[in-house]
Specification:
single chain; 567 residues; Alpha-D-Glucose-1,6-Bisphosphate, Chain A, domain 3; 4 domains; six-stranded mixed beta sheet; six-stranded antiparallel beta sheet; 39% helix; 19% strand
Length: 567
């Protein structure tokens, strides 16, 4: 039961209502208040859900459903975040006048939240630059460095459900355009709470912010076209493209054309921004059914490849022909794409090697496949595994390529320090065209990878919960009674990252190592009510088919064991 009694709850709701500039959320909250005053238990429970807690500002910024109250995304919460971040910037400014560049995608209220941020930043005395239209997240990440800004804000909820929105924060200077990490998140959060003690209606605003020219997007396009680095023909592969109702198409189409790739066949029903996401239940290429229209379009076109961005175009999904399945196409896992692009990056590094040999770091998150570390060893490159999230991957020293299994890839760290689904698409199309010119398919390249480095199999279990306490209970049980075996395989080591481990910052992650070289990672999701379990196994013995069968069987057995353990 909440510690707040109903009179206190109603008082807080009325105070929120008094400062809310949005007619939609005002009406919604007013209706709840009236119902609660009339004795509606359902309305009181709804108000508790909105006012007992607030959306926490962390290293992922803010993300949540659009609705009234501090535990939802809305103009009041965004104003508090913008003003709090402005105070932090002024406190830590390296320049007399810090600067911030602000971008937004096509989700509901993204443009409103972005303009509010620009006005509040300008009102606080910060040079604010608003991007000229809805644009992909990677363009914002690029613009921060291109304009040498102190910070960046991107209004997006990436691939979350349709009614969500979010607020991502980046830093320039010594952070080189990466997303914030601890302890900066806590410092900004403290300023936000200070702002929340007053009314956002009293915050100074100004319309004296700048609007960036189209030159910023064009500079991003120039830099992204340069990712296609091979001299092979660029039109050997035909492909389908979907923006998943997001903002990727306008920018990606020009990049593809300028790079010389074949004109993509668009998934027409998903190509323009639409905050309702009408053709998908969940606008994430990883989700079942999300790419069905892409498969249908590709079958009709006879395409060699499918390229998909998520709604803010920072993620990339790739599918290839596979006659063994009903859809005729198979989406590659993030680990498969990550391994192929990592091999490509290592090859490029070897062509640029000096007397010391190839130089640079391949990096991936700790829950991504160990395949990338095998590539790094083979090419004598440095390897770094990081905590989950590109705020960590992008900070690896000497980075030349980084990825995480959730369809995120960083192929051009000199220009963008975040995952970038458009530049990753260019890199993959460049690779696919070079292979096709030699008569090799992407599927055959995956077999080549297995021949050289071993076959790496992966699986992921996502346990979605309605009660968040269930996640803590499962993690606590695993720590209190660690398993000695998973299935028939002995557990040799369990690393608890809760207090940090091996140079990694503290994180609520368990890493379970097994006698046969397999690995299981368990962690709560950072953005959704899920417990995530990542399973990896490999084999380098026998033929490619032998290796595939061995690694796949190991993963299947571990998945079954983890389902039983966490039931």
């Amino acid at each position: 039961m909440s510690a707040k009694d109903t009179p206190q709850l109603l008082a807080e709701a009325r105070a929120w209502l008094a400062q809310d500039p949005d007619p939609e959320t005002r009406d919604e909250l007013q209706t709840l208040i009236v119902a609660a005053e009339a004795g509606s238990a359902e309305a009181v429970a709804d108000l508790h859900s909105r006012f007992d807690e607030r959306l926490a500002f962390g290293t992922a910024g803010l993300r949540g459903a659009i609705a009234a109250g501090p535990n939802r995304m809305n103009r009041v919460l965004v104003a508090q975040a913008a003003a709090g971040f402005a105070r932090w910037l002024l406190e830590h400014a390296e320049d007399a006048t810090p600067s911030v560049v602000i971008g937004y995608d096509g989700r509901k209220n993204s443009d409103v939240f972005a303009r509010d941020t620009a006005e509040l930043m300008a009102g606080a005395g910060i040079r604010a630059v608003l991007l000229p239209r809805l644009l992909p997240t990677p363009v914002l990440a690029f613009a921060l460095r291109h304009l040498d800004a102190s910070a960046g804000v991107m209004v997006t909820a990436s691939h979350n459900p349709p009614n969500d929105n979010g607020y991502k924060v980046y830093l320039g200077g010594e952070n080189h355009g990466s997303q914030i990490v601890s302890p900066v998140d806590a410092e900004i959060a403290a300023h936000i709470l200070e702002v929340a003690e007053g009314s956002v209606a009293d915050l100074p605003r100004s319309d004296r912010y700048e609007v960036a020219s189209d030159d910023v997007e064009q500079a991003y396009i120039d830099a992204t076209v340069a990712v296609a680095s091979t001299s092979a023909p660029r039109d050997a592969v035909s492909f389908v493209y979907t923006a998943m109702h997001g903002v990727g198409w306008r920018t990606a189409r020009e990049v593809f054309a300028r790079a010389g790739f074949s004109e993509p066949v668009p998934v027409t029903a998903q190509i323009e921004p639409d905050p309702a996401f009408p053709t998908v239940a969940f606008p994430n290429p990883e989700e079942p059914g999300a790419m069905d229209l892409s498969f249908e379009t590709a079958r009709t076109a006879g395409a060699d490849l499918i390229v998909a961005n998520d709604p803010d175009a920072d993620r990339l999904a790739v599918a290839i022909p596979d006659p063994s399945i009903g859809d005729g196409y198979r989406r590659l896992s993030g680990n498969e794409v990550g391994a192929l692009l990592g091999w490509r990056a290592a090859e490029l590094a070897s062509t640029r090697a000096d007397e010391r040999g190839p130089v640079g770091t391949l990096a991936c998150s700790i829950v991504s496949s160990p395949a990338l570390s095998a590539v790094a060893r083979a090419y004598k490159l440095d390897f770094a595994d990081t905590l989950t999230g590109f705020k960590w991957v992008s900070r690896a020293p000497g980075l030349i390529y980084g990825y995480e299994e959730a369809l995120g890839y960083l192929v051009n760290p000199d220009t963008v320090r975040d995952k970038d689904g458009i530049s990753a698409a260019v890199a993959f199309l460049d690779l696919a065209n070079a292979l096709a010119a030699d008569g090799v398919t992407v599927a055959q390249q995956l077999d080549r990878f297995a021949e050289r480095f071993g076959f790496f199999a992966s699986d992921q279990i996502s346990l979605r919960v309605t009660d968040l306490s269930r996640i803590g209970e499962i993690m606590a049980a695993l720590r209190a009674t660690p398993p000695s075996h998973l299935g028939e395989v002995r557990v040799t080591q369990i690393d608890d990252l809760r207090d940090g481990f091996g140079g990694l910052p503290p994180s609520d992650v368990l890493r379970i190592l097994l006698e046969d070289g397999s690995r299981v990672m368990v962690r709560p999701s950072g953005t959704e009510p899920k417990l995530k379990i990542y399973i990896d196994a490999s084999s380098d013995e026998g033929s490619v088919e032998d290796r595939r069968a061995t690694a796949t069987a190991r993963v299947a057995a571990l998945a079954e064991a983890m389902r039983l353990l966490t039931a």
